């Protein structure tokens, strides 16, 4: 039995398809089938997959084998990662995904200072909207991700809360609501709301805040950055709901920030998959949680 055979088995169990698993493992389908046959023979002829149905299914024996194989592969990867630190000149790369809030919450400074202090750990940071970040994190393409806690992936991961923020209403300074510092959101129910695209966690957060306030928003959904939404609001094209820290960072004298009497509180969190916490990942998590909010 080899590590490769266990990896092949896990790929087939994941995709329920030999062809897709073969592509994922970069081998031919015939070679993959031979490797699984050899594995089953080594296990005394126990069949791990039911090949007699139209849809490939894992057998009861296969489900039990899956639990053991998963543990072995996690320990194997942990062993490999632990040995890397003894390699001369070794630099470990951490793949990090973040929604577009790096500057708003001081993440850029934290990343820079971490990189200065830990020269043997290189950060590869990808900034994108919530949906692609979650997809890549779920597929294992990212080691860690910065996301808001109201829009997290489904799975076995650990959450490290970093900072709470609140939704606020944003208008231009000539808007009739600009004379208020705080309102009930329902007072804005007749306004046109400009929202970020539905590939962002913010879209659903803003829409649910309106529904909670007792109305369905008259919305225009835009696949743009929050800075563009801010400029449209400043030019009188509508109002918007944004995170307080984000809009404060943009610091535009043309807009008015109006707090809500019953605001939605959302936490920016750092997440990591359980079983994928290497020494480098632990070092990064500890540094971020210790330094967050101090810069």
Notes on the protein architecture:
The chain has 295 residues and is an alpha/beta fold. It has helices at residues 3-15, 18-25, 29-42, 60-84, 107-117, 130-138, 201-213, 226-234, 244-250, 279-291, and strands spanning 49-50, 57-58, 92-98, 121-127, 144-148, 157-172, 182-183, 192-196, 218-222, 240-243, 255-260, 265-273. The strands form three sheets. Strands 3, 4, 5, 6, 7, 10, 11 and 12 form an eight-stranded mixed β-sheet that branches. A two-stranded antiparallel ribbon has the order 1-2. β8 (192-196), α7 (201-213) and β9 form a beta-alpha-beta unit. α1 packs across α3.
Q: What is the compact description of this entry?
A:
With 295 residues, this protein is α/β, with parallel strands linked by helices. The protein has three domains: 3-84, Arc Repressor Mutant, subunit A, CATH 1.10.10; 92-163 and 267-291, D-Maltodextrin-Binding Protein, domain 2 (3-Layer(aba) Sandwich), CATH 3.40.190; 165-265, Periplasmic binding protein-like II (D-Maltodextrin-Binding Protein, domain 2, 3-Layer(aba) Sandwich). It has helices spanning 3-15, 18-25, 29-42, 60-84, 107-117, 130-138, 201-213, 226-234, 244-250, 279-291, and strands at residues 49-50, 57-58, 92-98, 121-127, 144-148, 157-172, 182-183, 192-196, 218-222, 240-243, 255-260, 265-273.
């Amino acid at each position: 039995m080899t590590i490769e055979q266990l990896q092949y088995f896990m790929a087939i169990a994941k995709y329920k398809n030999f062809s897709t698993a073969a592509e994922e493992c970069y081998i031919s389908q015939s070679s993959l089938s031979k490797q699984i046959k050899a594995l089953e023979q080594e296990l005394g002829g126990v069949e791990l997959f039911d090949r007699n149905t139209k849809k490939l299914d894992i057998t009861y024996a296969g489900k039990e084998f899956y639990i053991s194989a998963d543990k072995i592969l996690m320990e194997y990867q942990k062993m490999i990662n632990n040995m890397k630190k003894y390699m001369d000149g070794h630099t470990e790369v951490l793949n990090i995904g973040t929604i577009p809030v790096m500057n708003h919450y001081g993440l850029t400074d934290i990343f820079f200072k971490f990189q200065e202090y830990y020269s043997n750990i290189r950060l590869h940071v990808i900034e994108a909207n919530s949906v692609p970040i979650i997809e890549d994190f779920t597929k294992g393409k990212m080691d860690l991700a910065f996301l808001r806690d109201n829009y997290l992936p489904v799975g076995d991961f650990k959450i490290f809360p970093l900072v709470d923020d609140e939704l606020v209403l944003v208008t231009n300074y000539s808007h009739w609501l600009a004379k208020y510092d705080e309102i009930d959101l329902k007072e804005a129910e007749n306004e046109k709301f400009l929202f970020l695209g539905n590939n962002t966690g913010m879209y659903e957060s803003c829409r649910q805040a309106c529904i909670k306030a007792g109305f369905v928003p008259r919305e225009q959904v835009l696949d743009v950055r929050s800075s563009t939404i801010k400029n449209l609001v400043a030019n009188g094209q509508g109002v918007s709901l944004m995170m307080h820290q984000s809009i404060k960072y943009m610091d535009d004298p043309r807009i008015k920030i109006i707090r809500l009497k019953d605001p939605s509180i959302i936490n920016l969190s750092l997440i990591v998959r359980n079983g994928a916490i290497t020494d480098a990942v632990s070092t990064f998590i500890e540094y971020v949680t210790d330094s967050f909010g101090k810069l």
